[in-house]
Amino acid sequence: MTQSRGMSWIEAATNVVVGWWLAHAMELAMFPAIGLQVTLSQNILVSSTFTLASLFRSYVLRRIFTRLSGGG
After folding, report:
1. CA triple 30-23-60, angle to 5 deg
2. How many whole angstroms separate alpha carbon 1 and alpha carbon 11?
3. pLDDT for 9-64, tens place per residue?
4. pTM
5. Most buried residue, 18, 19, 33, 68, by most Cβ within 10 Å?
């Protein structure tokens, strides 16, 4: 069974949102534990940057594997 484009988009968007919240929460806990003092806006910038990098990485790998599997 294949996934519709709409459901793929919903899955990807959910993954990004959950990933961002997880990164943000982990940074709020870990940064002070290792002695990094950052403002909330700095923390949001860091977690957003890593989330965008993760989204880009995931997209590129998905396209590579799709091409390798003969799907596009």
Report:
1. 135
2. 16
3. 888 888 888 988 998 899 899 999 999 999 999 999 988 898 888 888 888 887 88
4. 0.68
5. 19
